[in-house]
Write a structure and sequence with these properties.
Blueprint (H helix, E strand, L loop, with lengths): L1 E4 L5 E4 L7 H57 L2 H7 E8 L7 E2 H12 L10 E7 L2 E11 L13 E13 L2 E9 L1 H8 L5
Parallel strand pairs: 3-8
Antiparallel strand pairs: 1-2, 3-4, 5-6, 6-7, 7-8
Helix pairs in contact: 1-2, 2-3
Length: about 200
């Protein structure tokens, strides 16, 4: 017999015309085929275990990012600057077409808190859905509050708001690096009486 390579690079025995005991040649072939099957099964099992480990790690990171989103909203409501400094990158940017100022870094998030919370001091943010993909988490939530303080040029109206929000967060190594916000600002203005229903 001699050893050669097949198309996947595995060793393959081929019987040669040496004469002798053909039964021994067949037994050798069968033994090698058994060994080859065992090796392939082992490689397959290793590959599946490796993929499962990667999937578990990915799921773990995504669950951690979802929890960071929950913690972000709690920190925002409380104005928790320590949490913001620890979990919001210095280069963080919030993309929000409804705002008249930029929100950058933890200081920008604290500024947003200082603008909104005096106007809506009883604000609640029910979190309804989370969808994680890669390093991003999409959160569907509500903003529910009573307008009891000035909001820009708008004096307090005493009216309640209940609007829909979609927030897309991006994380890197457990730190929030970017945020895209989409709020129902038209619905809010209608609920506040700023424009006709």
């Amino acid at each position: 017999m001699q050893c050669s390579l097949n198309t996947i690079g595995m060793a393959r025995w081929q019987p040669q015309a040496y004469g002798g005991d053909s039964r021994k040649n067949m037994e050798s072939e069968e033994m090698f085929a058994t060994w080859k099957r065992a090796l392939m099964m082992g490689l397959l099992a290793f590959g599946l275990a490796f993929q499962a480990g990667c999937a578990d790690k990915k799921a773990s990171v995504q669950e951690a990012n979802k929890q960071l989103c929950r913690d972000y909203f709690q920190a925002f409501l409380k104005g928790d600057t320590e949490w913001m400094k620890k979990h919001i990158a210095a280069g963080f940017v919030r993309h929000d077409p409804g705002l008249g100022f930029e929100v950058k870094g933890p200081e920008g998030v604290k500024k947003l808190h200082d603008v909104l919370m005096p106007a809506f001091p009883d604000m609640k943010l029910p979190l309804l859905d989370f969808v994680a993909e890669g390093d991003k988490v999409l959160v569907r939530l509500k903003v529910q509050a009573t307008h009891t303080g000035a909001l820009g040029d708008m004096a307090a109206t005493g009216k309640k708001i209940d609007i829909d929000v979609l927030d897309l967060f991006q994380f890197k190594d457990g730190v929030l690096i970017e945020h895209w916000a989409l709020l129902d600002n038209l619905g809010m203005l209608k609920q506040l009486g700023a424009i006709p229903q």
